[in-house]
Amino acid sequence: MPKTAIILGATGLTGGLLTELLINDANYSKIKLFTRRPTGFSDPKIEEIQCDLLHLEASKKDFTGDVIFCCIGTTKAKTPDRDLYYKIDYGIPMVAAQLAKENNIDAFMVISSVGTSDKSPFFYVRTKGQMERDILKLGIPNTYIMKPAFINGRPDEDRKGEKGLKFLMKVTDFFMIGPLKKYRSTQALQIAKAMAYLGIHHHKEANISNAQIKIVSHQYES
User: Fold this and answer.
1) In angstroms, rounded to a whole number, what is the distance separating the alpha carbons of residues 53 and 94?
2) Which tens digits make up the pLDDT trace of 74-86?
3) Where are the domains of the chain?
4) Could you tell me the end-to-end alpha-carbon distance of the chain, in angstroms, rounded to an integer?
């Protein structure tokens, strides 16, 4: 039976790509976009729910469906204030997972990062590690933590400063072999495809590594 998907972060790169995929995926009949501003998507499948994501609990009655895709995230550069960073990278995914539990939604996915640890001395790494730890504690049956390394964008994207960084990552990826392979860059579209696939097909592991993301994304394509 086609599923109802909830997406947080549809205005971001990966969330936007995921939304595009699900619009054209017959496995998904409805897509609820929880967003603080208009997403620009227009399709019969789309239901846009504008709300304050920092107070997502106020939208509990609308937070119903079959699978949640949490593509929310920020960076140190975009959010230098640590309190706000914590509210976004820990708080939003955690509240979304709690609402999933309360509303009996049995599939939850969130984008984290490679190399996280809830015991790290580094605030940003530790925040994501704590988020992963506490979401897994909720025991939602099909919980998947996506753990990419550097996320590359669309092929036609040339944001300020990113063109050179993408070229550097291509060169760096070439030398990342053996135990360093897990740090190779990942295309945002690969993450989106892997998430769309996992929304339908279960996986035996909760932590989806950088390498596994790429494998699963190919399964979606096939």
Assistant:
1) 11
2) 888 889 999 999 9
3) 3-151+186-221
4) 20
Neighbours of 173 (CB within 10 A): 18
Distance CA 46, CA 88 (A): 24
Residue 4: Cβ within 10 Å count: 16
Give CA separation, 181 vs 173, 200, 212, in Å: 8, 28, 12
Measured N-to-C along each axis, helices 188-198 and 210-221 cross at an angle, to the nearest 10 degrees, of 70
Torsion of CA 151, 152, 158, 159, to 10 degrees: 0
Q: What is the pTM of this model?
A: 0.88
Using an 8 Å Cβ cutoff, are 19 and 39 in contact? yes
Alpha helices in the chain (DSSP H): 13-23, 82-86, 92-102, 123-137, 162-175, 188-198, 210-221
Report the top-level CATH class of 3-151+186-221: alpha beta
**Paired strand residues for 208:** 146
pLDDT digits (tens, 9 = 90+) for 132-186: 999 999 999 999 999 998 887 654 444 444 555 455 445 454 445 555 555 567 8
Which sign, positive or negative, has the C-alpha torsion 194, 196, 198, 200? Answer: negative
Question: Structure tokens of 96?
Answer: 């979304």
